[in-house]
Design a protein that fits this description.
Blueprint lengths: L1 H25 L17 H15 L14 E3 L5 E3 L8 E2 L6 E2 L17 E2 L11 E2 L3 E2 L3 E2 L1 E7 L2 E6 L3 E2 L5 E2 L3 E2 L10 E2 L29 E2 L5 E2 L3 E2 L9 E2 L28 H32 L4 H30 L6 H68 L4 H20 L1 H35 L2 H72 L4 H64 L5 H67 L4 H65 L2 H14 L4 H33 L5 H22 L5 E4 L3 E4 L11 E10 L12 E8 L4 E8 L2 E8 L3 E6 L12 E8 L2 E9 L6 E9 L14 E5 L18 E9 L2 E2 L5 E5 L22 E11 L11 E9 L5 E8 L2 E8 L2 E7 L7 E4 L13 E8 L3 E6 L2 E7 L10 E3 L4 H4 L2 H4 L9 E9 L2 E2 L9 E5 L10 E5 L3 E7 L6 E8 L5 E8 L2 E8 L2 E6 L2 E4 L11 E7 L3 E6 L2 E6 L13 E6 L12 E9 L16 E3 L71 E8 L6 E4 L9 E10 L4 E7 L6 E7 L2 E7 ...
Antiparallel strand pairs: 1-2, 3-4, 5-6, 7-8, 9-10, 11-12, 13-14, 15-16, 17-18, 19-30, 20-29, 20-32, 21-26, 21-30, 22-23, 22-29, 23-24, 24-25, 26-27, 27-28, 30-31, 33-42, 33-43, 33-45, 34-39, 34-43, 35-36, 35-42, 36-37, 37-38, 39-40, 40-41, 43-44, 46-57, 47-56, 47-58, 48-53, 48-57, 49-50, 49-56, ...
Amino acid sequence: MALILAWPLAFPLFFFLGYVSLSSASAEGNIFHFDTEGSSAVGSQEDTLIRGQQQSISFGTWADFAERCQEGFFRTFSGECSPCDCNNNAYKCLDGSGVCLDCQRNTTGDHCEQCPDGYLGDVTRGVPSFCQPCPCPFPLVANFAVSCYRKNGVVRCMCKENYAGPNCERCAPGYYGNPLVIGSSCKKCDCSGNSDPNLIFEDCDDVTGQCRNCLRNTTGFNCELCAPGYYGDARNAKNCKACNCRGGPCDRRTGQCLAEPPVLPPVTACPEIICDKCISDLTDDIDLAVQSIDESKATVQSISTGAAVHRHLNNLNSTTFVLKAKLSEKDNHSVLRKSQVDNATNEMTELLKAIHILDEKGNQESSKGQLIQKETMKTIDQANILVEALGNMIDNIQEISSKVEYYGIEHDLRPEDIIQKLKAAEEMLKDIRSRKPFAIQMQLAYEESDAAQELLIQAEKWRQTHNETRSLIPVVLDQLGEHNTKLADLQEALDQAVDYIKNTEAIKKESTAKLQEQEKQQEILEAQINTVNSTLLVARDILDIPQQINFELTEAIKNASGFYAEIDGAKIQLQDKLANLSRFDDDLVQRATEYAQELRVLADQLDRTLHGVDTNGLVQKALNASNVHENIINYIHEANQTSVLALNTTEWVSDAVVGIDTQITYHKEESKKVLNQASKQEQTAHTNYLAVADTGHRVNGTLARKNNLKAHLLKVISKLQMSEQDNARQRLDQLKVITSQALNTAAAITHTTGPMAENLAKWSQDLKNVKPARAAYERATVTTRDTVKSLTEVLPQLLDKLRTVEQKWPANNVSASIQRVRELIAQTRSVASKVQVSMSFEGQSVVEVNPQTNMEDLKAFTSLSLYMMLHKDNPELAAPQDQFILYLGSKNTKNYLGLAIKNNNLVYIYNLGGGDVEIPLDSKPVSSWPAYFSLVKIERIGKHGKVFLTVPSLRSTAEEKFIKKEEVPGDDALLNLEPKNAVFYVGGVPPDFKLPPSLDLPGFTGCLELATLNDDVISLYNFKNIYNIPKSVPCARNKLAFTQSRAVNYFFDGSGYALVRQIERRGKFGLVTRFDVEVRTPTHNGLLLLMVNGSMFFSLEMQNGYLYLQYDFGFSSGPVILEDSLKKALINDAKFHEISVIYHNSKKMILLVDRRHIKSVENEKQSMPFTDVYIGGAPTEILKSSSVSSHLAISTGFRGCMKGFQFQKKDFNLLEEPGTLGIGYGCPEESLMSRKAYFNGESYISSSQKISLFHGFEGGFNFRTLQPNGLLFYCTEGSDVFSISLEKGAVVLNAKGIKVQAEDRSYNDGKAHFVITSVSPERLELLVDEKKQSTDNSAYDESEEKPVSTKKFYFGGSPISAEFANFTGCISNAYFTRLDRDVEVEDFQRYPEKVQASLYGCPVESPPAALFHKKRKNSSKSKGSHNKRVGKDNVGPSQFPLNIKKKDKEQIVQGDSHCHFSSSPKASEHMYLFGGTANSRQEFDYLPKDFSERSQFSVSLKTHSSHGMIFYVSDQEEEHFMTLFIAHGRLVFMFDNGYRKLRIRSQEKYNDDQWHNVMFVREKNTGRLVIDGLRVLEDSVPSFDKAWQVTRPFYIGGVAPGKAAKNIQINSVYSFSGCLGSLQLNGRPVTSPSQTFSVTPCFEGPSEEGTYFSSEGGYIILDESFSLGLKFEVVFEIRPRSSSGILMHAHSVNGEFLNVHMKQGQVIVKLNNGIKDFSTSVTPKQKLCDGRWHRIAVIRDANVVQLDVDSEVNHVVGPLNPRAIDHREPVFVGGVPESLLTFSLTTRNSFTGCIRNFMIDERPVSFSKAALVSGAVSINICPAT
């Protein structure tokens, strides 16, 4: 038992020995090197370099250094050049040994053939199998493994001490935390030493850390308190004692009683009272004894039985022997490691380090052994105390026995009674003694104690062996000194050889340059000779042709005379056209004026109609709305005719002008040719001077006549243009007036049709309650139907006319008004879709419905629900006749779904191209349906179909539900419907439409009401056409009859809103003002509440699923923001949440969710100045107003359900409010499902279900993407993997290593594709868009078939699969077969694990077709409305400067009001952040005159890095220098005096991420290092006569490339990583560096990964491996802090350029391809400056450029340059030097904000390896706030 209690102290020894065993095993083959500077061992990269240097200097037969091998080869001992064997991961290797240098791609080893610790991969196979971070559990962000390896296709992790599990996904025993949460880690349990000492680790909850079993009378989260009834110090002294308060409570610290115990009654002489007291005393003593025994029993039972301890002891013994064996192997391996000349040096270095390690480990073992011995003695003492306690317990029992005897004598009991009581006591004692744990546990404790003693003896023997080894250290050190001396001599010889090589190379370069210069001169001479010869030949040819000149000039004069006649004829025609054009002006003005007056009269008439209607005047309103729309159509038609007439006239005149201009251009070109010929002949034909002079005279005359004619034509053209402009301007003004009036009329229509839904609901209720008014309702119904029919016929015509007018030229001043009319029409359709009123059908009635749903969304999944009630006028009929109900499908009846009644059953029929599938619902015959509405739903997912029936009860909440399912045979799985060829008929079909035979039935008789189609709410009143609708009252439906509608809910689809006017009519703004509403939504963003009054506003929004409240009641400090920054309440989980906003005492705003406090804020005391409240959205003119749009972060309407809107606890019926528009009644579950999920490349979702992957499985889903690779679906069963992925554009199914791949490789085209996979024991099948691929299931084995269990599966990616990249795109309509549930579409909202996935919307667009087709020939025009014209002038070529100077910064505004974040994040004053790149630094050009004699620098620093440069200055040759750097966490100050180096090094480490003040002083030959004003280190070197001189600049934080490596070890040459500031030289502050490279202010607050570009300006130049040519794809993410700035720029020497920049929130791509400038742009709906990350993609293919911003796409087709070639020019990111900017750019500012995930052609770009980082740019660190 003593050993058990001591085991927690012995475990560290076991763990240490096991760690040494593993270390010795893993270190096999490694070499330790001695750091001559006194530091610890250098890294593996330096090991390779040192080993290579030692090998290269040790061979006596080394070849001449002047003959070096090329890069990628090394010289062998025989002098030959052999290729480096580095597995393509390095380009250099050491001569002689071939050891590789600078291994890339996370590789290591002599031949770059291994992955370092923490990485996994197959180096020899190359990309993408090279070393990747271990996924333990996540790569990079949460990797808690020391190393990992792959076994049987599964990654195994070697976890760190604190972690456990195959993927380090949980904490080890004795630690708590959740490694699966990013940012979390495992921490050691802290139970204050009061947990069970027999356990190896402290026992606490593995997630929260709360201690489970607190002993020693303690309690609390960490066992830090004494238990109730005890007092003392539980944490330190551990002396919790029982309270001496006679059963009452006491203070836990002092033991002072908190209440007096009750006073006992006085003892009297009554015998009965004495007897009762004795009995009670005896009973109390027995109870105390029993309690003590129970506690002892629990303590003994909790002691471990020792099996685990014995196992650990055996492991410890085996580990000790393994350790000895491994150490002996290590020694043997060290002796035989090297067989060359450098064996002695390497072996001695290894031995020294091994001895040093053994010394440290021996000290640790010694201290741990003493600690174990000490703790063992303590444990024995505790055992003795326990034995003593047991003895006291026995004494108590004996005392009780004596009391019993005394009791019998005292009370004169009979012997029989005493014997009886004694027997009972003996039975109790016998029972206690017979309990086994006492004897067994004591025996085990003794055995374990003996084992512990043996362990201590073995540890003592090990210590003795260690001491013997340690005695050999002095001998080894002496030998090392001798070898160091030899190495120094060899180093000097090597330096001399290097000098000889440098001199030889210099001579060789000079000779080569002279030779090249002579060759160039010879080439020039030969070229000049050839030029002279060719000139002579040309002169001879010229002399032969002067006779032809006169003839050609004569012909030219004749042609010019003919042209004069043609121009005169054109002039006459042009004058006639001008006369005809002038006659049109008066008629156009007069007619437009008359139209405007008539339109005004109609508007007044509409206004009077609106004021004259009653409460239920819905029918008249709809009729008036229809008439107004007809009037709009008529007047737009007339305006259209007028504009067409003006346009034709203008085009006619324009054609004439163009014809004349063409003639002028032709004559001009001909004249120029004649002039050029004459000029050439004049210069060359010296022998025919007279003829040339005469010809020149004639040419001059011709030119004069041509100029006169040109001037005359220019006058005519100017007159035409003036006339054309005046006339066009008048006509456009008239059109503007007409359109404005039409817009006003449309606005009136909006106010008229707004209350339609409200009145219809009220109408339905009145119809149900009031029977006498049936005739009036019938008339109203007929009138309404006719009105809606007329309105439906009018709307398409109106849209066509609007489209025609919008296309007329010029239309810029009309298009905005037309767009507004389109929006009003869309709102009208939305209102019609939410009319929840049934229609009555009498067998001949037909309604053609406008589905409004995207036909592409119906392909894979279709769900349609409706309410249906049959007319049962003849009860004698046992069953209704066969009837047609609805048809949704193609006009050719190839693909469709329908509903009918056949053979007294409801039948669902669908056809996917191969044949009909009929699903009769025979479980509920139609004849048994009730005489009220039932809910019918038909659904199809892939080839699987279902029909549902829900029959409610009007008397209770009970419902009857029926279901029937079926599936299509074969491979057909898609409902292929084209929008132009799709029809939706309900109740019947028109006479000219032929139904398929299965649906060719008589029309429906009864009442129907449509509900939903997929996610959209639909209505019969949103129809295209109606036929034979009866003029009868519709059937009334109880809207609260079904479960999903039993509460009053309102459905918002994102386009409508509710408006409560004069809200104080129900309640007043008071001391406490309160708004309450319940919402349910799956969406991320939406506007919930909005109140506006001038510049004052109040908005409650939902951003990314959390609440965001912003308001301004006229405060002097501006708007106040209240947001759920701590993410306390997630709103978009498709559950109802009660939101409350409370405004208290006019100065405090409080936000509550589900009655929990989220946040509150105080403001200036101001009351709420509002009267109207918008709910769920607002009109466009309100959202876009200047007072609101600048503050709203979300302008999209709310999509979801609301209920219970209250103001001051008063309810409002939103459908009865007059201003409500576009909302409906109820809360359809289909609209709240999340069938789609968008993945961004780092996200995934997962769930668990009972599925059989490899024995009987079918699943399918839709996907859309633009990326060629990604993991779509992933699941494992043991070591077997089942995955569906996209590889190079092809879909691949992988089941147990058997792959089935689709033939097509272009599925990354941005279009929707449907995948079905089927696995059976015989076959594996893959269908993509109904194209089948299959193979035999050779991996199936019946013996391996296991019971089906719950398995976890993933969509979009997997945290446990390192083989595939995560998917980027959209996955929707997923389903698969399960054993416990029917086939149904997956609701991703219910998945428990959702990582960075968006469950609403799918922002994947198709790329332009130009990127997928061949380039057109001679295409010089930019097509499409997306093309924007730019300046015509070509940008001239600009030479790239050799030395880029820092550009003058433009004035940058301190804060951008449109941005969520300020332009400058919060930072420490005068402190700067260095690091990210190897040469991050500041350069200062100032040095005082006496710097060579004395200098004193002081600086403040904070870092967590072990190495890095802080300060450096030197001369040109770096013979004299002074530096301060960090090596192994210690500060090192060093300089030289020309003879020796002085080195001062701190003893303590200062890389603790705390601020430290450092001062370093040099006074001639003396140096002083002062740290934090407390530690002063000083040293000096002998003086030297040579002067000490250094030159400017001096460097802070790092050095320029190539500097300092001569004097400082390489790890410390790289840039300092951390913050530096408060730099002073000789007591004066030093500011304003001359140059800055990758330095930003030192941020305060949280940060994240990304590259930050400060407002001070800066840019990054990528290396030449990343080039933008004729075809490329650039993708990156940005989070701006300013709405304007340059994102990327590339410029070539011939004037071509590519520029991507932002201008006021708009993203613009501008390109010049050598022909002209052309550009495209995207203005995203969501502001780029909203504080979130946004994805930008730029794709170029020759003359086609596409720009993607999040989900919005635009492109441009520019002119084709046939001579275009690829240029490898530098690429600038974040900014560009001023000298390279072109004048045509709209902004010249540098980008301010963060950029991450920058990729060119799918290759990640590492900014830390860029060619240059200039200015205030921070690599890999981005401020998060």
